[in-house]
Amino acid sequence: MTEETPSKRPRSSKDVPYELIYWPGLPGRGEFIRLVLEEAGAAYTDTAQLPDGGGAASVLPYIQGALPPASDPSNTPLFAPPILKHGDDLVLNQTPNILLYLGLRHGLVPGLHNDPDAQFRVNALALTALDGLCNEPHDCHHPIATGLYYEDQKAESQRRAEDFVKERLPKFLGYFERVLGSAASGKEDTPWLYGGELSYADLVLFQCIDGVKFMFPKAMAKLDREGKCTRVLALYEAVKERPRIKAYLGSERRQKYSNGIYRYYEELDLEG
Amino acid sequence: MTEETPSKRPRSSKDVPYELIYWPGLPGRGEFIRLVLEEAGAAYTDTAQLPDGGGAASVLPYIQGALPPASDPSNTPLFAPPILKHGDDLVLNQTPNILLYLGLRHGLVPGLHNDPDAQFRVNALALTALDGLCNEPHDCHHPIATGLYYEDQKAESQRRAEDFVKERLPKFLGYFERVLGSAASGKEDTPWLYGGELSYADLVLFQCIDGVKFMFPKAMAKLDREGKCTRVLALYEAVKERPRIKAYLGSERRQKYSNGIYRYYEELDLEG
What we know:
2 domains, homodimer, Glutaredoxin, globular, mainly alpha, 47% helix, 4 strands, Glutathione S-transferase Yfyf (Class Pi), Chain A, domain 2, 9 helices
């Protein structure tokens, strides 16, 4: 803030812990945010950790209209979780948006100090991973309506999953293989997507691959055997070995998959 | 660039026209980019305007692997159009990513000079409009596979469109009505989503509404009669009256809807 903008009240310090507001009981889209917070070593609270399903009660006020009273009136109403609250100033939603905010703040956009456009390259990678390897897997069990049960759209799910493992999954993995083999990804001996250093897009792709391996183990095993995702799987293993990520994955904070985005249904576990 | 970063070569000037690289023959996702460029009064070329379908030949090299040789090696391979090229330095894809890049450059993020977080609020609004009122309408005619014809997924499309007009469309419109009624949208007599001034999210919402009105005229008419989208439609009309947008919409550069995201199928034109 400068003296030239007296109309806007001083903003509170951002040196406060983050609050992640998300449904309890499943990793969901909240998991992409958690991985970035964990890798950054950031202090945060997580409504998913509240006892007795209290997390749901934390989410609802945000998406049912009214924002909590402490919020800056510049904050718009929110559509859906994950939601990130940071101090009294900022309440954000939209997964790729929160990821960009955190990535810029926590040094997870390689090369940004030399090239401010780096953020748009990393943002595009994260958006593409979320489109193809999070939203599309979700639609494999909910191709008709998010408001219906899977059991009410099983036949359509079967068709969609067949197309996903045969066409879409190889296409998206092939894209990330090309990215990982490109000059933009850095030297050959670094496993990361951009600039030879870990970016938040790597964490997003890690979580996508983890979920897809859980949901479609046969298809992923086949693509691995065929050498179609060698670099992507090397990135996946490299993320797992990051000390803070490794500690997180071994902790109770890491939730098991259940009825969220990535689900295991035997009839959808196709080889492709 | 500063002297402290000699390893990176000097970047070329950004005072060059933009190039929009997109499929010819349909407005598609390219249209969101065009509206921002038009409102900004930016100089740009558009492969959709190339004669004899030459636009398709312009798109393919970008998404089939190799980037054109003039590009900065920091650019990653691209997944899909729309693609924005800016000078020799930058080639970007992902619609919301290009929109953010342009919005920041062209003063289409209200209040940014006072509050750098404004960009994340506007980005979230644009992402939510694209999710609910662009991607979901697309999936109403392609719920199973983008690689199949509509005719091969008609029954599933019928179910998906029924859910969309009944559940999803009112939900997303209701959300934007709440945003438009919030303090964050500015004074009551301004029609915009954020900060009392036009943002690129307004242009995104305009195009979404234009497409949804084309695809689902009965549902939109009903929601209008019921007063469920009064503020959204006021925003829609206000965007239409922006001088540069008005000139653009009246020009031959504005393409007609065809076999793209927003399509008219009588059997999907449900009232909800």
